[in-house]
Amino acid sequence: MTTPPGPEAARRLTLQEIAQAKRDGRPLVMVTAYDYPSGRIAERAGVDLVLVGDSGAMTVLGHSSTVPATMDEMLMLTAAVSRACRRALVIADLPFMSYQVSDEDALRAAGRFLKEASAQAVKLEGAGPMLARIRALAGAGIPVVAHLGLTPQTATSQGGYRAQGKTAQAALRLLHDAHAAEAAGAFLLVLEAVPAPVAERITHELRIPTIGIGAGAGCDGQVLVFHDLLGLGEGPLPRFVEQYASLGDDAVQAVTRYADDVRERRFPQERHTYAISEEELEHFQRLVEAGSPVGADDEDGVL
Fold first, then answer.
1. DSSP 270
2. Distance in angstroms (rounded) separating the CA atoms of residues 134 and 189
3. Where does 49-129 have alpha helices with state H?
4. By percentage, how much of the chain surpasses pLDDT 70?
5. What is the mean pLDDT of the chain?
6. pTM to 2 decimals?
7. If you placed Cys at 272, which of 200, 235, 268, 287 could pair as Cys (CB 3.0 to 4.6 Å)?
8. Is the residue at 303 inside a domain?
């Protein structure tokens, strides 16, 4: 099978190239995506890594946290993003309770993302007992991204959505956990809501790249939520978000104009309609008036 021309022909970014980016000092760009259109936008923009985050439970499914995301939902979202991305490396979030209970659960869940949804890697949150999960996955040849700092799946036990590592002991624990995640086999580390100097020290000490979200410019790369950076959500944004567009407002204005045009009969206009010849129209009218049965169509018009 030949590869289609255009952006789809790009070669997939490799784990070795991701590691090399850290050594070269080239910042890595990650963004979340949750469906084919957002995946295509990320791919066309040339980002390096696309995370199908369990934040999709909030951004596209309307939940108040990431916890309700299910395996079936995450598999569906990941498969759609994977179909959109040819160069960017697609990473799937393991949803809450798909990996916490046992290594076997983690392997089974991660394997489904690679086999059924064509992800190239998976991400899990936390250290401690989760280090065994990282070892099990890496040992099975499944690329693993670790996630430390604010871990949304267990935010309640952390006192809510709050910055982590703000005391000397908490920062030291983060550093030790980061080293442990690397030693367990993670190829990438996400640091969320961590003081910038702490994240910079962790980044300096690790061989694997770090991706920051609310962790300062000293990380090896950055990630933002698709809906946050494009202004597609509602409500206040975290302080670490830079909103690069206001597409939500633009969309509301566009749909409002459409609704007004429909109600005022300004839409549709003649240019939006399809023609029928006078001869066929007259024939149609005669058939209707005669009560004729429906016969076979000759051909359909092209949209």
1. G
2. 12
3. 56-59, 71-84, 103-116
4. 94
5. 94
6. 0.91
7. 268
8. no
Higher pLDDT, 178 or 9: 178
Q: Of the listed 43, 182, 192, 200, which one is catalytic? A: 192
Q: How many angstroms separate the CA atoms of 194 and 240, rounded?
A: 11
- Asked about 192 being catalytic, the answer comes back as yes
Give the domain CATH number at 143: 3.20.20.60
Whether the CB-CB separation of 54 and 79 falls below 8 Å is answered with no
Is residue 125 a contact partner of residue 116, using CB atoms and an 8 Å limit? Answer: no
User: Is 75 in contact with 54 (CB distance < 8 Å)?
Assistant: no
Structure-model confidence comparison of residues 302 and 180, the more confident one: 180
Which long-range contacts link 109-114 to residues 24+ away (Cβ below 8 Å)? Answer: 109/71, 110/137, 110/140, 110/142, 110/144, 111/140, 111/142, 112/71, 112/75, 113/74, 113/75, 113/78, 114/142
Decide if 43 contacts 7 (C-beta within 8 A): yes
**Same structural domain for residues 166 and 46?**
yes
Q: Is the pLDDT of residue 6 over 50?
A: no
Residues 75, 94: Cα–Cα separation, whole Å: 10
Number of domains in the chain: 2
Looking at the chain, the number of H-run helices and the number of E-run strands are: 11, 8
- The answer to whether residues 231 and 100 belong to one domain is yes
Q: Do 41 and 95 fall into the same domain?
A: yes
Domain range for residue 260? 256-290
| pLDDT tens readout for residues 99-137 | 999 999 999 999 999 999 999 999 999 999 999 999 999
Q: Is 45 within the bounds of a domain?
A: yes
Question: Which of helix, strand or coil describes residue 90?
Answer: strand
Q: Are both 183 and 52 inside the same structural domain?
A: yes
